[in-house]
Amino acid sequence: MAINRRDFLKVSAGTSGSLMLSLSLPGCSGMPTGYTQETGEWKPDVWLEVTNTDEIHFTLARVEMGQGTYTGLTTLIAEELEVDPEAITPKFAPVAPEYRNPLYKLQLTGGSTSISTSWEPLRTAGASARQMLIMAAARIWQVDSADCSAAQGRVLHPNGRDSLRYGQLVELAAKESISDDVALKPASEWKYIGKQRGRLDARAKSTGTAVYGIDVELPGMVYSVVTRPPRYGARVKAFNESDVSAMPGVLDVFEIQRGVAIVADKYWRARKAQDALKVEWDNEEALSLSTHEVFASYRKAGDEDRGESERSEGDYEDSLEKAERVFEAEYSQPYLAHSTLEPMNATVWYRDNSIEVWAPTQAPDLGRIAAARVTDLSPSDVTINTTFLGGGFGRRLTQDYVEEAAAVAYRIKKPVKLIWSREEDTQHDLYRPAMLHRMQAGFEGSKLIGWHHQIVGPQLLDWYVRNAAPAQYPWAPKFMYDTLGKVGLLAEGIATPKDMSAIEGAIEYPYNVDNIDVRHTHTDPGVPVTFWRSVGYSHNGFAVETFMDELAHETGEDPYQFRRKLLAGQPRHLEVLDRAARLANWDTPVAQGRGRGIALFKSFGTFVAQVVEAGVENGVIKVYKVACAVDCGQVVNPRIVEDQIEGGIVFGLTAALYGEITYEDGQVQQSNFHDYQLLRQYELPEVTVDIVQSTEAPTGVGEPGVPPVIPALGNALFALTGKRQRSLPLKADA
């Protein structure tokens, strides 16, 4: 194709503002690319759109819940497209197979995978667009495209004077064809990747213009609250419907699968009506256990079943017989709530034989299944609009709140906003599982020759598969949903991925020991559970790194040096361990009344070491300093890495100091922040983060700050008091 300047000017002058260049990412085969005159109509794909008015739109396949995808993923596109990240407008993706997370085969944001799974595809998309725009300009100028370049949204002529805006080239560029192996910019030419920059969503969030789920407003919207049973699994027997229906503003009161829904014209009228609601519950199938019974059942299960072997090296039983001494310890960790600052909510509108959902969800394709499940609709009839999330931490991977809102909207036939109270959010959460760990180590002299770790507790797939399995097969009829879930569990590790939630972090034990035996005894007491920030790494990190500290004490060795000598051949582990120790001045005496503890853990591909300095003041644990070294591969935005590591540290310290959900007779005893406390601002320690400059592929940072800080704090308290704590939360008077 050849075109002269006069013809080009005719084309660019005659085009409307709706022209765009649409690029599908590699791996999204079969999706059309090219020129369209309809700005509002586009095929579901992870598309980069460049209009002839120089607007650049980027559709995010991952949600933004504070972890920085909005900025980080946009930066990858901007780098290769040669525009400032602020020139790009991100928007959240609709539900489509092309947006699925390749690691999970579901459209979800979790596992600290957003950057790592997008690193090459998004840069390739940006580079492809840039190259097509350059080729279009080169044809106009009738010069070699290799002699042209791009900068700040323009293609530059080889003469250094002339240039064309991207918007002027969009129709012509859409007709270009390039190979799949487009060249990416070398690191030496990066302008944005690896640079300290602010967040693209900061202004909207600071000014209140960012729309979270709880902010959604629709014409004619009504409000709903749901009263759920105090004991999980109970069912509604009877309720005073007529009394509540007569109250001001109440539009309807009715039973849904998870309890009794009230709909009113105002939110507080719905809450007022809820106060007057009296429900009689059928507790025949309800949860009835208490926390001490949970751990008693774990110990019984661990005694009766050594569990499935998850990692076996050498001959641990033989090493046990040869050991001169054997050291044992048991660690327990409680159920933990998520406590997202934005409680669960969703807005749903059922109309014209379709349903539209606005929700802060980490898994929009599962939300679509949840809405279809409680209506007469197919998943294809459900539209999910993802909003900003006021915290996720894994809680919003489970779609119970969407299911409830859809059930209400299906009956009401009006736009309905369902909001959970803080008490409901705490008492009807799906929790981080309580877990039990039995550790054993054998020594020959001072040499560690055997390591045994038995993990006792549930798996998360048992609870998550209900909507996850149908989401992978949205074409399946609804009567098959539960069957698909059961098949998914039966085929786990064969036709479906193995559930690693209980064992992750334990099977990656990095220390050089000849004989290693890691096992999981699967037992589930029936408490509803789901993913929690850093998942299995959180509880395995506490058990592994506390036990390592105990072993160092048993041998009389320095905890840092004890770990160090067992890390031969693990350069990235060693690097962060050494950096954290230097950062904390490990070899210098700690101040009077303080203790110092160290821990090292790899999670989600990221290596993190932390040193905590803590003490006890007026009967309360006080964390003074946290020194952290992190190796997350190539860094896209150092500021976001620091933010996420610091956030993970605060999240972990909250769990270490305060986190505990307890049961009595099947009922959760905590209800709000007064008895499920979060770390307050005045309690925050001084945190220093040292980021390793790496050329390795990027890995996650949203979660890896959590696992090491919990054992590091426990180890610091032991260094101060000489008393070892093997259960969480940690106590000042233990």
Describe the secondary structure blueprint for this structure.
Layout: H1 5-14, E1 20-24, E2 34-36, E3 47-51, E4 56-60, H2 69-81, E5 88-92, H3 114-141, E6 149-151, E7 154-156, E8 163-165, H4 166-173, H5 202-207, E9 222-227, E10 235-239, H6 241-245, E11 250-256, E12 259-264, H7 267-276, E13 279-282, H8 291-304, E14 308-313, H9 316-322, E15 325-333, E16 345-351, E17 354-359, H10 364-373, E18 382-386, H11 400-412, E19 416-419, H12 422-427, E20 435-444, E21 447-457, H13 461-472, H14 481-490, E22 515-522, H15 535-555, H16 559-565, H17 571-583, E23 594-603, E24 606-617, E25 620-631, H18 638-657, E26 663-664, E27 667-668, E28 686-691, H19 706-721
Parallel strand pairs: 4-5, 9-19, 17-18, 21-22, 25-28
Antiparallel strand pairs: 1-2, 1-3, 3-4, 6-7, 7-8, 9-12, 10-13, 11-12, 14-22, 15-20, 16-17, 16-19, 20-21, 23-24, 24-25, 26-27
Helix pairs in contact: 2-3, 3-4, 10-11, 10-13, 13-14, 15-19, 18-19
Biased composition (Basic and acidic residues): 300-319
Protein name: Xanthine dehydrogenase family protein molybdopterin-binding subunit
Pfam family, one: MoCoBD_2
